[in-house]
Fold these 2 entries.
Entry 1:
Amino acid sequence: YLGGVFMSIHRGLPAGVSALVVGMQPLLTAALAGVLLGERVSARQWTGLALGFGGVALVVGSKANVDGVDGGALVHMLIPALAALLGITAGTLYQKRYLQPCAVPTANFVQNLAAFALMAPLALLLETEVVHFNPALLGALAWSVLALTLGGSSLLYLLIQRGAATSVTSLLYLVPPTTAFMAWLLFNEPITAITVAGTALTALGVSLVVRPPSVKPATG
């Protein structure tokens, strides 16, 4: 998943467009969960998924600029991001159906071993630039390993075991607004009215998806 996102950005795809592509995961997961897992997605949840995606589009849309890029080049940029989208969706559905419950450390070990087996040969074959290690690079690597891979994956495993796939993946809609807030805090990037509106819309959408269904009181 991360390899596909990083490769698309490396090929020139704006980060905003990449976020929009992988931001379709909750919608794709919901559509497939009904068929493959037998999960029922209510009209309220579909509304929440649509609102959440709309909020994500508002937050990252101002950065989603691909002007001057021809169709062939755009497809070349998009393919890894689309592969990332399909990969994390398929992994979520597969684990929910076949692998839960599982020990989180074991799941992380298997995932990282599989990722290493795939990405190490690709790195040796495709990477031609000399890597110069410095504090900024080491910090970014530490964040990717500790926060994204170990922390994020562990939380995802726990949530998949305890909840419906549709509800769990809808939480990923909160990533772009949170990123916008962190960019303001760390890099002084402005938070615009569109960012605030998109964040509010995303929060509303997620609340509609994860809210438990109301139980009607028994009569008679």
Entry 2:
Amino acid sequence: YNDLEKAIIPAYPEIEEMKRLLMDIGCENTLMSGSGPTVFGIYEEDVDVSGISEEYEVFKVFSI
């Protein structure tokens, strides 16, 4: 849980958008890291994140 998300998301709605996109492709949970701007998703099985970075060029997407 990140308490700062509540304060940051109204000013930067793209954080919420990225979290929603990650959930839509199969992540079990998402969270903004620290004070941002990083958002990460946790998943049990491999998730194809390539479509996010292709469709939304502003996002830098990495999968490890």
